[in-house]
Amino acid sequence: MTARRRLFPGGRLSAYAFLYVVFLYLPVIFLPIFSINTAPTPKFPLTGYTLKWYQDLPKTPALLDAAWNSLIVGVSASVLATLLGILAARSITRYRYPGRRTINGLIMAPLVLPEIILAISMLLVMLQLGLSLSLFTVVLGHVLICIPYSMTVLTAGFEGFDRSLEEASADLGESAFGTFRRVTLPMVAPAIISSLLVCFTISLDEFVIAFFLTGTETTLPIYIWGQLRFAAKLPGVLALGTLLLVASFVLMTVAEILRRHAAGRTQSEGGLYA
Question: Could you tell me where the DSSP H helices lie in 97-219?
Answer without folding.
Answer: 100-108, 115-128, 135-158, 163-171, 176-179, 185-187, 189-205, 208-213
